[in-house]
Amino acid sequence: MVSFSTSYCLLSLLSPSPSSLSSSSISARSRAPPMATSSSAAAPPRLVVACSSPPRAGSFPEPPNLGPQRATFSHFGLSANEDARLRSSYKWQRVLLKVSGEALAGDHTQNIDPTITMSIAREVASVTRLGIEVAVVVGGGNIFRGASWAGCSGLDRSSADYIGMLATVMNAIFLQATMESIGIPTRVQTAFRMSEVAEPYIRRRAIRHLEKGRVVIFAAGTGNPFFTTDTAAALRCAEIGAEVVLKATNVDGVFDEDPKHNPNARLLETLSYQEVTTRDLSVMDMTAITLCQENNIPVVVFNLNKPGNIAKAIVGEKVGTLIGGTTRNLQLQYEGSF
């Protein structure tokens, strides 16, 4: 037996030809001195040992400290340079689209209108091909609204809200199927585990999907009762680092009065967070608005039913009502950015 005191050794088997190597050549018997049977016998493989001293401390250069790097992937066959150029030319690079369940119902002849989901899918496809990362939060009011059913037949609020969360999963799976039918890679993540039909919500995995050009649909709200899907949209937006919440509704934006009761109601193009809360405007619930305000997340409210509005909102064009910051800053931003 041969022993070595050095720590770094390189072992290799050398043979006259590759065909002479076999698994038995590296066994203990192959290392024993071969029996010479005839002059025509093939030469046995030789064991060569190359040893070196362990590297001294500091002999290898330290890798440069590049700091945290954000992974980038080209989208839909675009080169890396083309993808970077397209992404930098738009106002938003990562957005969260909030689609209410009622908007999915269309004319309310059925729970889900396939023409609405296909319209959403096509407009999302048009912007994801430009390299913009899109996440979606869906509501469930077209199927079941927990707050409306609480107290019926002994149904408590928590149980009613959980049923509503299941309704959002139904909408998410329907929307996923529609998007994938036109070639958009899509993942559904739920706030509580339903591993047979969707992924569990994992923040880092969701961000990875977005970086790879996939659409991520968040379902089941926050996973907790007493919180709306608007709050879920604000929460997920903050978690994944999206730059804006795009709230798709059945109206053109936020009005100073209810347009159903007053046809002369005026559309408000910009609003501050404070104006929404002090004037009690029914845009989003107060928890969602406060969460957006604390994390400086702007909100764009626009009409889902007008063709092209989703794509316009996602790329940052002027549409609907912009909420965030102070009114003066918003006016400058809205007028100077487009």
What can be said about this structure in brief?
With 338 residues, this protein is of the alpha/beta class.
What is the element layout, followed by pairings?
Blueprint: E1 8-14, E2 46-52, H1 80-88, E3 94-99, H2 101-104, H3 114-128, E4 133-138, H4 146-149, H5 157-181, E5 186-190, E6 199-200, H6 203-211, E7 215-219, H7 229-240, E8 245-249, E9 254-255, E10 267-268, E11 270-271, H8 273-278, H9 286-294, E12 299-303, H10 309-315, E13 321-323, H11 327-336
Parallel strand pairs: 3-4, 3-8, 4-7, 5-6, 5-7, 8-12, 11-13
Antiparallel strand pairs: 1-2, 9-10, 12-13
Tell me what you see in this structure.
With 338 residues, the protein is an alpha/beta fold. Helix content is 33%, strand content 17%. It folds into two domains: 7-30 and 44-53, no CATH class; 80-336, 3-Layer(aba) Sandwich (Carbamate kinase). The protein is built from eleven helices and 13 strands. A nine-stranded mixed sheet has the order 6-5-7-4-3-8-12-13-11, with helices on both faces. It is globular and about 50 Å long. One of its GO terms (cellular component) is cytoplasm. Residues 15-41 are annotated as: Disordered.
N- and C-termini, Cα separation: 79 Å
CA gyration radius, whole angstroms: 30 Å
The number of distinct helices, counting runs of at least 4 residues, comes to 11
Number of domains: 2
CATH class of the largest domain: Alpha Beta
| Structural class by secondary-structure content | alpha/beta
The CATH superfamily of the largest domain turns out to be: Acetylglutamate kinase-like
Characterize the overall form: globular
Question: What percentage of residues falls in helices of 4 or more residues?
Answer: 25-40%
CATH names the topology of the largest domain as Carbamate kinase
